[in-house]
UniProtKB/TrEMBL annotation, chains A, B:
InterPro entries: Aa-tRNA-synt_II (IPR004364), aa-tRNA-synth_II (IPR006195), aa-tRNA-synth_II/BPL/LPL (IPR045864), Asn-tRNA-ligase (IPR004522), Asp/Asn-tRNA-synth_IIb (IPR002312), NA-bd_OB-fold (IPR012340), NA-bd_OB_tRNA (IPR004365). It comes from Flavobacterium sediminilitoris. Homodimer. Its EC number is 6.1.1.22. This is Asparagine--tRNA ligase. Residues 98-472 form the Aminoacyl-transfer RNA synthetases class-II family profile domain. Belongs to the class-II aminoacyl-tRNA synthetase family. Keywords: Aminoacyl-tRNA synthetase, ATP-binding, Cytoplasm, Ligase, Nucleotide-binding, Protein biosynthesis.
C-alpha cells in the first residue's frame, strides 16, 4: 500500500485507519517502540511492534538508521508528546544498518567536528536535519520575498573572465594540463589554448553583472555560489558559499538600507512561522550546549527570543564617523583592551570593534554607513562636499550580534567620469570592464545593492556557531571531501 | 516625489493624480511621445512631452536607452493598446545615451548573434527582457513546486573532490600556479599543496550528494550551476548551465516519471499564468522569425498552443524496446534517411531518432524507459529477470519536441553488492565513493530522481532556438566575456 509521510500522519486525526509509513529508525526501545523518522519533520512517529509475534531475528535488525516499512493501525497515543502512533501489523526491513559499523552512535555523543567528517550521514541526526530544513525554508523565503516585490532572479556567471571584481583571492578554472602546458613564444602560459580562450576564475560576486541587469529590468537579485581562495581557517569563512545580491535601479543608500532591513526581517519571520518545531529543537540544543560554558559567555536571550527581538526592533543606523567617536571613547579602547586601538578617523574596523558596537553598545543589529573612501571598493558612490582627506562613500555594512558582518552594500558610483578616475587610481584597466562602464555610458542612473552571505544568515537563525555546520558539504582549506 | 513602477501605473485606474515614473526610453516619436520602460513589464508607458515648452537641447537628449524621470498627470489614453499615459509636467534626463554610440539600434535590426556580444545591454530589448522575466518566473515556479510538495532544497557542492560522477568532462579548479607547480618526488603535480589538498573539479551533477540527503530528509531537490568542459559548439550546449535534480526516497521509476511529468506541467502552467504579456510577445516574435522560413520548417503550433498542448496531454511512456521496434520499422530507417541506421536492440539513440519519435511518430512529449544497461550510468537500478545480453536498467529520458532530451533520470541501484560489482566492472574505485556506498550500507531503500537542464526548459517555454539566448551570460568554448 502507498505510504504516508510522517508529518502527515502526525497531523492526522482520523485514527483507526490502516496506514503505511517508511523511514529510518531513530531508536528502538524495550523491543517494542520504534521512533521512526522520514525527514519530513523533526518529530518521529512511534510504531508499536507486536514483539511477541515478531521473530527474534527481525527484532535484532531494528537498529539505528535501518530503513523500515511499517503497516498498521493509526491509533491515539497514550505516550507523552505525541498524538498518534502506529500499532504495527506488518514490518519490513528495507535496508539494514549494522550497529557495529554505523558511524553515528548517539550514545558516544559524537562531536560536531566528528560529524563534519560524516557530512553524508550527519543529516540523519535531529540537529542537522533541523538545520537543513531551516536552510531550505530560508532559501525559499529569499525567493518569495523578492518575487513578491517584483524583483527578477538573475543567474550571473560562475566562471568569469573578469578579474576586476576585487572582492578577494580567486580560484583558477582551467582545462589546460600542468604537464605540457601550452606556452606562448615568450614562454608564458598560452590561455588562448584554454577552453574559454582566456584566463578564467570562479566568481567572487555577481554584483557587476547584476548591475547591468538592474539597469534594464529595474529590480533584480542573484542567489548563487561564490568563492574565495583565501586560507581562512575560521568558523566564519568558507571557500564556497551562497550569496544573495539584490540590485535596484533608482534606489539611493537610504532605500538600500530600508530594503535590506525589510528583507532580513521578512525571511526570519517566514522561517519562524514555517519551522517552529525545528527552531524549538535548535533552541534547546543551544541551551544544552551553553550549559557547559561559564555564565558570562552564555547568550542573554534564547534563540527564539533573539529572532523575535530582531523582528521587533529597528536596526540602529550609525555613520562610520559616529561609530569612530563611540569607539574612541569606549572603555575597552581607553583601557587598551582592543587588539587594535582606535586612534583616529580612517581606521578600518576590526571584528572586535564591530562586536563591541553591536553586542555591548547598541545591543541590536547595527547598520554602519558612509565609510572612508579609501577602505572601500572602487564602485561605491563618492559623497559630495566632504573635507579633503575625509572623503566618504555611500557604503553600508549590517552587523549582527554573534555573527558580525552579514550584509555589505552601497549606492553605486553612477558618474562615468568619477568611476573611471577611481579605477585609474587603483590600476583597474578600463578595457577589462568596458561592459560595466557601458551602464554609465548609456542611460546611467542612481542605483544601489548589497550582498548577504547566506550561510551567516543560517548561522544566526539556527544558533549554530561554526559556518561548516550550516552548509551540507563545506569547502575549506584542505577539505573537499564528498 | 517617490516614483511608481510602470507595471503599477499601467494597472492604475485612478487617473488625474500626479505621478513620477523612472526608466529608459524605448522610443521617442514626433518630438512628443516617449515610450518609457523600466523593466517591470514588457509594456511601456506613454509619456506625452509638452514639446513647445521644453528646450530643444533637452528634446535632443531623449534618445533610445537614455534614463529619464518624468513627473506629470496620469490620464486616460486615447492611443491604442494602452489604458493610461502621463501628461508630462517635469522631465529630467538622468543619464544620456549617445545615439551615435549606443550599440543596439533597432533600425539596424541587430541579429541574435550580434546581441550575444552585447549581453550586458541586450536585456534592454523587448525580446531579452521578456526571456529573462520568463526565466525568473520559471525559477520561482521550480522552488514553489518542490516546497509546496514537501521537498527540501539542498545546495550540493560546486567544487568537488570526487571525479566519479561520470557525466562528462570536467573543469579543473586550482590555486596552484602553472609556473613552478609544486611536484612530488616522482615529478607528478603535488595536489597536496593545492588549496583543498587534493585534485578538485567543477561539479557535473549534484546527484550523488543529493542521494545522501534524500536518504535522510526523504524528498530533496537541488537547483544550481553545473559544468561540462566539452567542446560542443552547438545551439543546445553550454559549458555552464543550471540544473534541477530532485531525489526521492521510496520512489520507484513509475513514481519518478509521475513526479517529472507533474513538475514540468506545474512550472509551465504557473509561467503561462504569470507571464502572459511576455509570452504573447515571444509568440509574435517567433511567428515573425518563422516567416522567413519555408512552410515545411515552420512550427505547426503557435508558442502558446504548444505550451497548452503539453499541459493538456499525457506524456507518452514508451519502453526502449518498443521504441527500437518503432524506429526499425520507420520509413526513414528503411529508406536509410537516418545518419545512424537502427539495426538492432542495444543501439544508443541519436538525436535524429529522438526527434522522429517525438515530432513525427507520437507528436507529444515522450518518456523512454528501461534502457540497455551498458549505455547508461553505473548507479541505475538493474532490472531483474532480463535475458542475458539484454540487461536493462530503470532509466528514463523525457524528450520534448524541438528540444530533445530535457530530463534524464532513473531509479537508483539500492543493492550494495550489485552496485559494487557494477563499479568494479567499470573501474570506479570504491574508496573514491565510500560515502556514496554508505547510503547502501546503512538503511538503504528504493529511491529515484532525475535531472532537468533548466535552460532547455527555458528554451521550450520561450520558443527560442539557441540556448545562448536564454541565459544571461552564456559560457561556451572560446567565450567567457563579462
Amino acid at each position: 500500500m502507498k505510504h504516508t509521510k510522517v508529518i502527515d500522519l502526525l497531523n492526522n486525526t482520523k485514527t483507526l485507519q490502516e496506514v503505511t509509513a517508511k523511514g529510518w529508525v531513530r531508536s528502538f526501545r524495550n523491543n517494542q517502540f520504534i521512533a521512526l523518522n522520514d525527514g519530513s519533520t523533526i518529530n518521529n512517529i512511534q510504531c508499536v511492534v507486536d514483539f511477541e509475534n515478531t521473530s527474534e531475528e527481525t527484532l535484532k535488525r531494528i537498529t539505528t538508521s535501518a530503513a523500515v516499512s511499517v503497516t498498521g493501525t493509526l491509533i491515539e497515543s497514550k505516550g507523552k508528546g505525541q498524538s498518534v502512533e502506529i500499532q504495527v501489523t506488518k514490518l519490513e526491513i528495507l535496508g539494514d544498518s549494522d550497529p557495529e559499523k554505523y558511524p553515528i552512535q548517539l550514545r558516544n555523543r559524537p562531536s560536531l567536528e566528528f560529524l563534519r567528517e560524516q557530512a553524508h550521514l550527519r543529516v540523519r541526526t535531529n540537529a542537522f536535519s533541523a538545520i537543513m530544513r531551516v536552510r531550505s525554508t530560508l532559501s525559499f523565503a529569499v525567493h518569495q520575498y523578492f518575487q513578491e516585490n517584483g524583483f527578477f532572479y538573475v543567474n550571473t556567471p560562475i566562471i568569469t573572465g573578469s578579474d576586476a571584481e576585487g572582492a578577494g583571492e580567486m580560484f583558477k578554472v582551467t582545462a589546460l594540463p600542468f604537464d605540457g602546458t601550452p606556452r606562448t613564444e615568450e614562454g608564458k602560459v598560452n590561455y588562448k589554448e584554454d577552453f574559454f580562450g582566456k584566463e578564467t576564475n570562479l566568481t567572487v560576486s555577481g554584483q557587476l553583472e547584476g548591475e547591468t541587469y538592474a539597469m534594464a529590468l529595474g529590480q533584480i537579485y542573484t542567489f548563487g555560489p561564490t568563492f574565495r581562495a583565501e586560507n581562512s581557517n575560521t568558523s566564519r569563512h568558507l571557500a564556497e558559499f551562497w550569496m544573495i545580491e539584490p540590485e535596484v535601479a533608482f534606489n539611493d543608500l537610504d532605500a538600500n538600507m530600508d530594503l535590506a532591513e525589510d528583507f532580513i526581517k521578512y525571511v526570519i519571520k517566514y522561517t519562524l512561522e514555517k519551522c517552529e518545531d525545528d527552531l524549538k529543537f535548535l533552541e534547546s540544543r543551544l541551551l544544552e550546549e551553553e550549559k557547559s560554558k561559564p555564565q558570562a559567555e552564555r547568550s542573554e536571550m534564547s534563540l527564539l527570543e533573539k529572532l523575535k527581538f530582531v523582528l521587533e526592533n529597528n536596526f540602529k543606523r550609525v555613520s562610520y564617523t559616529e561609530a569612530i567617536d563611540i569607539l574612541k571613547n569606549s572603555t575597552p579602547n581607553k583601557k587598551k583592551k582592543f587588539n587594535y586601538i582606535i586612534e583616529e578617523w580612517g581606521a578600518d574596523l576590526q571584528s572586535e570593534h564591530e562586536r563591541f558596537l553591536v553586542e555591548k553598545h547598541f545591543k541590536c543589529p547595527v547598520i554602519l554607513f558612509d565609510y572612508p573612501a579609501n577602505i572601500k571598493a572602487f564602485y561605491m558612490r563618492l559623497n559630495e562636499n566632504t573635507e579633503p582627506g575625509k572623503e566618504t562613500v555611500r557604503a553600508m555594512d549590517i552587523l549582527f550580534p554573534g555573527i558580525g558582518e552579514i550584509v555589505g552594500g552601497s549606492q553605486r558610483e553612477e558618474r562615468l567620469d568619477v568611476l573611471v578616475e577611481k579605477m585609474k587610481a587603483l590600476g583597474i584597466e578600463e578595457e577589462e570592464l568596458w561592459w560595466y562602464l557601458d551602464t554609465r555610458r548609456f542611460g546611467s542612473a542612481v542605483h544601489s545593492g548589497f550582498g548577504l552571505g547566506f550561510e551567516r544568515l543560517v548561522l544566526f537563525v539556527t544558533g549554530m556557531t561554526n559556518i561548516r555546520d550550516v552548509i551540507p558539504f563545506p569547502r575549506t582549506p584542505q577539505n573537499a571531501e564528498f
